[in-house]
Every structure is written in structure tokens, then in C-alpha cells.
Amino acid sequence: RTVYVNGDYLPEDEAKVSIFDRAFLMGDGVYEVTSVLGGKLIDFDGHRARLERSLDELDMPHPSVMDDLLDIHRELVRANEITDGLVYLQITRGAPGDRDFAFPDRDTPPTVVLFTQNKPGLADSPAAKQGLKIVSIEDLRWGRRDIKTTQLLYPSMGKMMAKKAGCDDAWMVQDGHVTEGTSNNAYIVKGNKIITRALSNDILHGITRAAVLRFAKEAQMQVEERNFTIDEAKEADEAFVTSASAFVMPVVEIDGASIGTGSPGALVPRLREIYLEESL
Ligand code: PDD
């Protein structure tokens, strides 16, 4: 696989990053995941805009390569012959050469890394037909989940808790209300209405979320942005998650309770179809 690191395209085993890199020592980095379908990048502009926002919120200087990111994405997709898959992008506050809590000088060169993941058949995964089983866990992450940082230990632990419970993923709960999934936004459906938590610092502002809600409204579905509980979710007609890698993915079970019939319903598969059609 060809990867990109700080200006160079290299075979993955030749790419190097300093042991003093702030993302390695402090989790001081931001990232984006952009999906590739049929060789085409999905929603690149949205991911790029959120990346800029993440950098700004953390007072991280924008690397000079910002204007070339689309070209780098395209070059990696081409070099690695990705038809369906993902491009991972990470920017860190660089490697000042020692460990220090305070941010280094603003002229410290940032670390910019991109690589691809090949996922043949990404859009027709069996999970989309079966639906996901979800377990609820407490949301113990920090308070700025709107910034897409590389601090992913708790979401990783959440996936492991889900696995241990025989589930596919976890929904996190704060003050009795669902925030989001470990790596996706969470929704419930009642009749023709889609309910999802409103944007705030409590959740990541999903790029897929924005697109899906826009398409839903265009398709005459109702959208209500408000908090909901796990109990309300268990009583919902349907449920789903969205992310760049899952697109629109039905949820069929929460904490052992079947949602609707226990199989994907009508609205969510339709919304998935609309999303994939409109995005391509
Ligand atoms: N995760 N919420 C969280 C906590 C996420 O990590 C993600 C994305 C989302 C969905 O955002 P988007 O629609 O922009 O992908 C919501 C990516 C896919 C990941 O970490 O792999």
C-alpha cells in the first residue's frame, strides 16, 4: 500500500513518524475518514470543512498542505486502486522533540498522514440487511466530542463492551439521554418521523448526518432534533446509525429488546438507498 506522510508518497513500511509526535504522546491530533464508492470520494468538502473546524477549535495551525488534500486523497485512491474503501487522514500538532504538556511553538511542523483502506463491497455489507444489535453504555468521554480528535480510547472500550455483550456496537448515554454511537450518530424512527439528538459539543457533527437529514426532508420525512432515552428507543418503530463508513445502517435490537419486528423496517432501508443514490 502507498501511504502519504509529510509530503511524501511511500510504501507503508517505509513511512515514519517521530516517537515525540503529540498524537502519540498526548492524543493531540485530529482526523477524518472519507469513504470511497465506485472510485469516488463521498462528501469530501464536508470532511474538509470539519477538519478545518477541528484544527481551529484546538488552535492547531493549518498545515500548508491544506489546499492539496483533495489531490492527495485522489492520488492515494488511484495508487492503491481503491474502488470501494476509505481514506484516513490525520493531522497532529507535530513532534517538538521532547514531551511537554504545553503546546509547542506554532512553527512546529504538523504531522500529516493519509492512508487508504480497501473495503470491497462497502455499500452492500450484510449488516445493512440484518441490522445491528446495540448495547447501551455510559458516555464517559471528554466534553468536546464535536472535535474529531484521535483520543479514541473510550470508543474502543465501548466496541469491546459491545462485543462482550454479544452486540455489534454501543450507544452512549449521558444524563439519561443517548448521545451517539461509538463511531456513528444515533437515530430512532416513529412513523414518518426521524428523531436524533441536536448538534452541540456533546456529539460529533456527522457529515453523513447532515446529508441524511437533508435527503430525509427532501423525501417528505419529518425530522425532529431532540434528546431521546434508551427506553424511548426500545419503543421506536425503527432505529439506525450513520457514519462515513456505515452510511445508513439499521439497528434492530437495543439492550436485548427488539426494535419494531426485530428486522430492518421500511423507512431506514429506503433512506439508505436514497443516501447511496444521492451521494454517488
Ligand atoms: N467515525 N460520531 C462519532 C463519535 C464518530 O466517530 C463518527 C465517525 C460519527 C459520524 O460522522 P461522519 O458521518 O462524519 O462519519 C459520529 C468515523 C467513521 C471513524 O472514526 O471511523
TrEMBL record:
This is Probable branched-chain-amino-acid aminotransferase. Pfam families: Aminotran_4. It is an enzyme of class 2 (transferase). Belongs to the class-IV pyridoxal-phosphate-dependent aminotransferase family. It comes from the Bacteria. Acts on leucine, isoleucine and valine. Its EC number is 2.6.1.42. Keywords: Amino-acid biosynthesis, Aminotransferase, Branched-chain amino acid biosynthesis, Pyridoxal phosphate, Transferase. Its cofactor is pyridoxal 5'-phosphate. Transmembrane segments: none annotated.
